[in-house]
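#lab-general

N.A. 3:47 PM
ok so I finally got the sequence cleaned up, no stray characters, all 290 residues accounted for. can someone with queue access submit it? mine expired

B.Y. 3:52 PM
send it over

N.A. 3:53 PM
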Amino acid sequence: MTSRASLRARICAGRLAHIMAAHSPLSAILAEEAGFDGIWASGFELSALYGLPDASLVSMTRHLDMVRSMAEQSSLPIIADIDTGFGNAINVIYAIEQYERAGAAAVVIEDKAFPKVTSLLADGRQELIRTEEFAGKIRAAVATRADPDFLVIARTEALIAGLGEAEALKRARVYEEAGADMILIHSKQKVPDEVESFVRAWHGKVPIVIVPTSYPEMNESRIRALGKIAMVIYGNHAIRAAVTAMKDVFARIRADGGIHSIDPEIVPVEEIFRLQKMDAVKANENRFLW
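B.Y. 4:20 PM
back already:
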């Protein structure tokens, strides 16, 4: 079974999919080893990796290259965060062709205007395009995919933009009618109340995706109690964990005047060799080099 088929089967079976963000092939490998069900190829994390704001500055080519590299190193299904689809419906057609060829199992497209600003920024510009225009993007994506197991996930930012639950539900219904396989509802509230309210009010046939970055108390038991959520994305925890660890280690080295104290506390270089599959290199050297 392909990674796409396995993801779709999991969703159809009602088994909650836990998806971890990644910004590199290495972080994708670590997510798989930790037991996650899929990888979120995060635009936010990739932007941060390059030291750039999450404001449509990373090109499709850069993001696509990273998705392709992740797919080469991990067998997990990859959900590609393609922001607004890199333009209008014509751009979406091209994007779907490319991401499907690169090995993605799904894409998430959001109904913001291009260029976007990251959703969780305080007082950030949050402009949405017309519902009908975004529905056209979803129809284009669904019509373009070659593999019927490839998921098209419509993300509405109506709650992020402060437009309220009624607008979010209206948009979600239109996107479902346009052919979306799932609806991602996003919120920047510090408690999960408005997301839970949306989920309870949702009577569509397709399941819901959430990203509980701002409301971390939304754990698995609380998600399952709602009964309509099929996927939870941990949207930026890989890059935040990496920054936390590097800041701590770098500060310790400077404070200690060397690596003597920190070295026993970090993974040995042999663990990096393992992640790089250096044993395979050695085996091939013994087999093929004279």
